[in-house]
């Protein structure tokens, strides 16, 4: 069995420690989110996502423990198991990254089809109206394509605030917000484009994080493979030549030469 480089060991231990930290943070964040949304109505649609997060973070932690044990005890089976598991995780992350890169091209059409089905907005159900009101207040917008999507029942969430950074227009005189002898300003920007921009920013952020994860995972796999290669490397030992004379004990005694008289 070959000897593993100290620097390679340190590099490997460092990267799996970072990955273990990420796994712990993911598990903690998932537990917190699950507990926070335990009584929410939308929890049923998120159950599968929580289960995946639990599984992925737990498997990541387990693999790092196995990988750390393998490099500490120099056990090849543990290092091989770590390598195979991390390669599978890396492939899954790459597939998700490709999926995120394909989303922007279909996002606008999907959002438009989803929200246009809610038209007219004044006749949408209470859950959809509550969601739109929150979106309008947060993104400083009104309506999907314009404020006219609300017909004459424009909600108060469309009212332009004093700290608004988006342009505002006067509300129609026949709208529910109109007040005699006053100019009521509402957001002019439609929400569909603002919502699409926000989602794209989130997708780009998640995509960047995934790229970082992939690089870490690949680094750990490459380090582990390098350690396995060094462990499998045969150590060359010097050849020992045996002499039959040495075996028979044919030795010559070394004696001091007799002192000679100096005349």
From TrEMBL:
Entry superkingdom: Eukaryota
Q: Does the keyword Transmembrane helix apply?
A: yes
Supply the alphabetized keyword list. Membrane, Transmembrane, Transmembrane helix
What residue intervals traverse the membrane?
A: 12-32, 52-72, 79-103, 205-229
Q: Name one Pfam family in it.
A: Tetraspanin
- Transcription regulation keyword on record: no
Give the membrane topology, semicolon-separated if more than one. Multi-pass membrane protein
Q: What are the subcellular locations of this protein? A: Membrane
According to the record, the signal peptide region is none
InterPro entries linked: Tetraspanin/Peripherin, Tetraspanin_EC2_sf
Q: Which GO terms describe its cellular component?
A: membrane
Q: What is this protein called?
A: Tetraspanin
């Amino acid at each position: 069995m070959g000897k593993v480089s100290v620097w390679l060991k340190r590099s490997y231990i460092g990267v799996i420690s970072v990955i273990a930290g990420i796994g712990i943070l993911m598990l903690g964040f998932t537990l917190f989110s699950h507990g926070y949304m335990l009584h929410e109505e939308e929890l049923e649609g998120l159950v599968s996502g929580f289960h995946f997060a639990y599984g992925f973070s737990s498997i990541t932690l387990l693999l790092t423990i196995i990988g750390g044990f393998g490099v500490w005890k120099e056990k090849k089976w543990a290092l091989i198991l770590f390598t195979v598991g991390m390669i599978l995780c890396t492939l899954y992350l790459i597939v998700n990254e490709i999926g995120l890169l394909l989303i922007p091209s279909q996002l606008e059409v999907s959002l438009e089809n989803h929200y246009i089905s809610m038209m007219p907005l004044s006749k949408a159900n209470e859950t959809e109206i509550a969601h739109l009101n929150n979106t309008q207040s947060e993104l400083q917008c009104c309506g999907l394509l314009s404020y006219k999507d609300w017909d004459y029942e424009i909600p108060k969430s469309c009212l332009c605030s004093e700290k608004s950074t988006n342009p505002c227009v006067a509300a129609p005189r026949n709208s529910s917000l109109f007040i005699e002898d006053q100019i009521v300003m509402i957001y002019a920007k439609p929400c569909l484009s603002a919502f699409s921009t926000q989602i794209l920013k989130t997708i780009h952020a998640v995509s960047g994080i995934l790229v970082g994860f992939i690089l870490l995972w690949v680094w750990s796999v490459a380090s582990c493979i390098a350690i396995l290669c060094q462990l499998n490397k045969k150590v060359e030992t010097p050849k020992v030549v045996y002499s039959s004379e040495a075996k028979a004990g044919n030795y010559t005694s070394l004696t001091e030469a007799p002192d000679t008289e100096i005349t």
